[in-house]
Amino acid sequence: WRPSCPLALLAMLSLSAPLLSFSPPSLAPRALPRASTPSLSVSGGTETLDFTQGALRSQKELTDGDLFAMGRRARPSLDWSNLRARLEVEFGFTEEELSKYDAIQKDDLLKAYEMMQLCRQFENACNQAYMQGNIRGFMHLDNGQEAIPALIADAIKKGDKKFSYYREHTHALASGVSPDAIMAELFGKDTGTCRGTGGSMHIYDKETNFQGGWALVCEQLPYAAGAARSILLDRMLDPEGTKDDDRIAIVFVGEGGAQNGRMAECLNAAAKEKLPLLFIVIDNGRAINTFTPDVAANNDVYMQGQHYGVPGIKVDGGNLEETLKTGRAVVDYVRQKGPAILQVHTYRFQGHSPADPEHERGRKDEKKWARAEADPIKLFEASPLAEGLDLDGASKAVKAIVKQSLDFARDSPAPPAELAKELEFPDPPDTDYNLRTPAADAAEITKRITDPEALAVCEAHVASLQALAAKGEISIADAVNLAVLEEMLADPRTVMHAEDLQAGSSYNIPKLTQQTFGKLRGADEIIDEGHFLGKALGEGMNGYRPIVEMMNTNFAIYAMAEISSAGNTYATTGGQFEMPLTIVGAGGTAPNQSLGAEHSQPFHAYIMGIPGLKIGTAASPDAAYGMTKSMIRDNGPCFLFLPVKMMKETKGYAEVGRCMPINKCKLVHEASDAAVASGNAVTVLTYLHGLKECQSVIPEIQAEGLDIDLIELRSLKPLDVDTIRKSLERTHKVCILDESTNSGGVGATVSAIIHEQCFDLLDAPVRRLAMDDAPVPYASSMEVAVVRRGKDVVQAVFDFMLKKYQ
């Protein structure tokens, strides 16, 4: 408790401590309150289920300890006085402020009941449609947890940004998303929320700011934090237009999912920046089937925020009135002061999905009990609060809505097959980014929101880098820093995330971003790449252009889930949400770099299979500068890999102001006509450190009367086959110096494409010089057997001439 709270209140709270601390029932058993709980009616009698024998017996009182010992949870013994006291002590509400939450108007209760009925009947209809084969894939129903969408409909506004997980139908309904569009999405129809691209687990609706529907457990947490940051950014960029802005972001997560480390990271971020972010923890006590207390030491998720100064509270989701009262107060707190946690204790009546073999896992009896003792709809109908309300009228109206949604979904057309490919990228690969100019007021906004002295320092630094670029003396790292600063100066909606950002990180890529643009636009991050890349994704969905620097691209392994979702989002949302996101970092594996296995992984190869992602490499300052600018201006996710051992030592020219294509290879050295005419030329494809390796051995190859077309693979995806084909029309032989493994590497993909599309041009099989599948060792004596280099290219060219292809 806070020392400043009144002593009388402390005394009262200490008496009710078991109710507020939610001690495990096995430690503090007490009788299950049954005053307003309807009984389970079986075979015409009033009986309950014997959980020890599975038989029917006469109704009797069950203690919390009885239920907990058998893998069941009693409803929490909470009333408004307990909740009110916690709101006063933990959230800082005054008595006067709390008084406005003491009663819920009859009209509001009826609306809440109607929303609960809509959700229940909609989910029942989904279940039936699934069994009929109209809904396919995975589907997860929300029956038993309807007080939560009732709260959403009651207290959350259209402009608030909502992030849910795969059990989100009811959250979308409560957010104002059309039932017709939701059902059509489940049926896989073109009129669905996402044109049939998302399905049950991916409901999105831009108009109502319902932003998922995310299928990987807990991934939505940092996305919501990013959306909350976008609200603060909006207020910074346009203080006059947002002076009455009270928008918040809401994220739904299960009590099991909230045990994930992403929760702690987002609580830290929310507390650090006072984000308007509400964590709604849906506590149904189960994973797919596992009883959560069996695997989690602390099930009171609402208390996780104590370490960060984020208040939390737990309510009984079986009690509609108290859920609304408490929820209204907590939502108002988030609108006015900052983040908070609302844990709602519920029961999920259905299995994890309709295909779940629940009868084999001991849940059938439990769910019968829960439907009788903890159904929020039945409990409300049996309470005095329901007296005088037209419940039958509400239920009848809901039935018509659900029937209409089924008819609409059934009669809607399927999406065209070609839509899938159309949604691969927001911007065509051949987009000319030089034609994209900042908004007319961009310069004025940047000047208004930036400290004049800091702006002058930044502009002077930019001028010095531009001078180096013009003289051919700029490094790869500084070229990227120049591109980043130019884009941030030109477009105030561009933001930067990195570790050690204040100090410029390892290669100065984010240098001066925070010092110039402040902590919102230049975010120094905790050491978890998935967390801050996830926040960037949430910003990208909400109108910003985030840049994320990976200090080393291998660290992005921690962000694989977020990178995957970034690639999928534009398509999965049916093209509603563009995903501008630029990831840039040093990586790759240089010969003899002595970094060991974990820092020498081919992460560029790991992500080649992620749809919707443009992947580039740059081994020169010119390419690094021009491709960075283009990627920042692209409306989809892009990843630029830079050579870790060339970041500072490789220097050259960069054409200031020019955006380079991000879908093209680069012919760096062209074989002589004489070598081509005599059949002594080979096309060599490479990237990152391979470019330097190949350039260093060209004189040796030429000394033998041979030559190469050296092509830098600046675009790994999409691959520029045209440039490769043009070279093969001259050389008819190709070698790939590949900075990834033999199995599943970039070279394997490129080789397959060449064989499929250019086979008639080949006089010999494609020669791959890939890293061995063994982990890259530290010692040079072993590393030489794993990592390929320039001398291997020389031997491969000689082998082609000798017709040695093995």
UniProtKB/TrEMBL annotation:
Pfam families: E1_dh (PF00676), Transket_pyr (PF02779), Transketolase_C (PF02780)
Keyword hit for Nuclease: no
InterPro entries per the UniProt record, alphabetical: DH_E1, PDH_E1_Alpha_Subunit, THDP-binding, Transketo_C/PFOR_II, Transketolase-like_Pyr-bd, Transketolase_C
GO biological process: pyruvate decarboxylation to acetyl-CoA
Key words, A-Z: Oxidoreductase, Signal, Thiamine pyrophosphate
Molecular function GO terms recorded: pyruvate dehydrogenase (acetyl-transferring) activity
Needed cofactors: thiamine diphosphate
CDD domains per UniProt: TPP_E1_PDC_ADC_BCADC
Keyword Metal-binding carried by entry: no
Domain Transketolase-like pyrimidine-binding intervals: 474-649
Secretion signal span: 1-21
PANTHER family documented for this protein: PYRUVATE DEHYDROGENASE E1 COMPONENT SUBUNIT ALPHA, PYRUVATE DEHYDROGENASE E1 COMPONENT, ALPHA SUBUNIT BACTERIAL AND ORGANELLAR
Name by which UniProt lists this protein: Transketolase-like pyrimidine-binding domain-containing protein
